[in-house]
Amino acid sequence: MTGEVVLPELGENIETADVSAVLVSVGDLIRLDQPVIEVETEKASLEVPASAEGRVAELFVSAGDTIKVGQAILVVEGAARAVPPAREEKPELEPPDGATERGTQEQDAAVLAFRAASRPSARPEIAESVPAAPSVRALAREIGVEIRDVTGSGRAGRITRDDVKAHAKQLLRAASAPGAASSSSFSVPPLPDFSKWGEVRREPLTRVRRVTASRMANAWVTVPHVTQFDRADITRFEAMRKDFNRRPEAADAKLTVTAVVIKMVAGALTRFPQFNASLDADAGEVVYKKYVHVGVAVDTDRGLLVPVLRDVDRKPLLQVAREVSELAGRARNRKLVPDEMSGAGFTVSNLGGLGTTYFSPIVNWPEVAILGVGRAETRAVHEAGEFQPHLLLPLSVSYDHRLIDGADAARFLRWIAEALEQPLLLLLDEDGGRRG
Predict the structure, then answer these.
(1) Catalytic: 167?
(2) pLDDT tens-digit map of 317-344
(3) Which of 167, 293, 390, 401 is catalytic?
(4) CATH number for the domain running over 225-435
């Protein structure tokens, strides 16, 4: 009996993945659910388990390959059990265009050039009524094309990948035409030949880095950024935190500055709902989220990953501390699944461990704000007629100025600072934000 192991569904709108490691060889005996390859998607790195057990007869992939959902990975002989792929095939009026072009240099250049010359769509999702395959809609999102504006050349007006590319090129030509808006000042010139001055080395961008670059470029062009700064006097808070961490109940949940800040941010988001929102510019509406999901930026050897803590406002502080630690560990060990990196309404980035102070984080669109936390420093503060040492924590909030005014940001940041300075007040009134 033989069984085929295929790449299963990995998450919403994920059609392909890059193979980062092959964990078995031809001739190996494998067990059911044993990891056989490691793949990297747009959101995470994860292991693909075997859906059959037996001896590996054929192996179809190698490290560096890009494979599609449903594509065969290997064949097992003597399989004791084989599980068919769980992917539900969706009817198509015509076969989707080849997805292998997604990582080509041509598309990467088109992404950068088009974003420089055209404002990306503010809509995070494409209406299902648009006659286009999922891979075509994904391409449109990646290069910032509003797919509803594209004229389809396929059967019954179906939109193809070539239609999307042609529409992007048409917008580029219009933007660069004489008399057009001065988008040419944002064009990306070709790189010089660096090898003229010495030896160089080139490496392909990882999938995580490509997606990060694409999203940050999209956010920078889409969101009118403003950053405001403040600082919190955490002298008493830090003494309380260190004292608690010496207690037995803190054995499995050490309180970190990041965990406490995330909990305070959750309180702030219930009191300032415009910071837990998204702007739908096309519809002229603001989308307010009634849930409080907070992303936390984690530095890994593959780049920045942002796992999401859900319903932070409803969880006790020690549970938040445990989840922060667990998610950060899973991110660094490549164990996150895509669902654990989606759905955030606000993000916290703590660079204090690297020694930085104030910085200007970039808003993670379609969110409208992000909090940056720096390294606390002891400074002399004039108090009661003399200078006293105080521990001051740098805070930075970047926000979308289309939705949030400077006064709103000042109040939001000051509220977080005061909550850190007097955490007991927040604990005594944890439901206060829900009364508004």
Answers:
(1) no
(2) 999 999 999 999 999 988 888 889 889 9
(3) 401
(4) 3.30.559.10
* Cβ atoms of residues 105 and 128 within 8 Å: no
Q: pLDDT of 28-38, one tens digit each? A: 999 888 889 98
The answer to whether 125 and 13 have CB atoms below 8 angstroms apart is no
Q: Which homologous superfamily is 99-192+201-207 in?
A: E3-binding domain (4.10.320.10)
Where along the chain do its domains lie? Answer: 2-77, 99-192+201-207, 225-435
Distance CA 216, CA 362 (A): 7
- Against a cut of 0.90, is the pTM above it? no
Its CATH class, for the domain covering 2-77, is mainly beta
